[in-house]
Specification:
The protein has 225 residues and is mainly beta. The chain has helices at residues 110-115, 143-149, 162-174, 211-214, and strands at residues 2-9, 18-21, 33-37, 47-49, 51-55, 58-61, 74-81, 93-98, 119-123, 135-138, 152-158, 180-186, 201-204, 207-210, 217-219. The strands form 3 sheets. The chain has a 7-stranded antiparallel beta sheet, with no helix packed on it. Strands 10-9-8-11-12-15 form a 6-stranded mixed beta sheet. It has a two-stranded antiparallel ribbon with strand order 13-14. Bound molecules: FE2/S2 (inorganic) cluster. FE2/S2 (inorganic) cluster (FES) binds at residues 189-193, 195-200, 210, 212.
């Protein structure tokens, strides 16, 4: 198990909850995650950490993080785990949409999308304030309109509300939305596949998939079947 360190903690968690210093080979790609554990705590469960951006010596971690994790704390890290986003190289109109909660886990896509010259619209109701000027921000109510413009949609959503966001996704598809959509699904992941607990199960195309191992990023339109 490798160590990481909480290098910084942020009061405003809309951009990220913390900066984690760790070896480069542990930095998760957008949509992937690490399992982090405080070796000095009695908590038996590790915490999944999703990147909200990366640096040569670590990454920004999306919320939520335990309040007790303060700067200087050492962490045991396992990963990177799971399937992340695959931003199409041809995409030039990127929509990032948080169907609920924080958009932070989608923000790891900003750097690669900007690097390939894409225009980006962030769709959410609680945006961070310190984004690059070229990122356009729209409320969630405008998702359908933004998706008629986008050629690629990356969204995040919670498994608990899958009936609601799946219905919205179906409307996007019917309305000739983006050519490609990928969804990061948040679900409890107590074992991350190690114990095959099934706590993260999600119905996809009439079979049960594990968010921890088959995801957490899925082909968005496959989630409709
Ligand atoms: S979290 Fe246990 S199987 Fe996915």
């Amino acid at each position: 198990m490798t160590q990481g360190v909480i290098a910084e903690r942020f009061l405003d968690e809309r951009r990220a909850a913390a900066r984690i210093a760790c070896p480069p080979n542990l930095i998760p790609a957008p949509g992937q995650y690490l399992l982090a554990h405080d070796p000095a705590s009695n908590d038996p469960l590790a915490v999944p950490l999703f990147p909200a951006g990366s640096f040569p010596d670590g990454f920004l971690a999306a919320p939520p993080l335990p309040r007790a994790w303060t700067p200087g704390l050492s962490l045991s890290l396992r990963g990177p785990l799971g399937r992340g986003f695959h931003l199409p190289a041809s995409s030039r109109r990127v929509a990032l949409a948080a169907m609920e909660g924080s958009p932070a886990a989608l923000l790891a896509l900003l750097a690669p999308a900007l690097a390939q010259g894409a225009s980006i619209v962030l769709v959410c109701d609680s945006p961070p304030q310190d984004l690059p000027d070229e990122i356009e921000i729209q409320p969630l109510a405008s998702l359908e309109e933004v998706c008629r413009w986008a050629d690629y949609l990356a969204f995040s959503a919670g498994r608990a509300n899958w009936i609601e966001w799946r219905a919205r996704l179906a409307r996007l598809k019917q309305a000739a939305g983006p050519r490609e959509a990928q969804g990061l699904i948040h679900a409890p992941m107590p074992c991350a596949g190690l114990a095959e607990c099934g706590a993260c199960a999600l119905p996809v195309a009439s079979v049960w998939k594990w968010v921890c191992r088959d995801g957490p990023v899925f082909n968005g339109f496959e989630l409709l079947h």
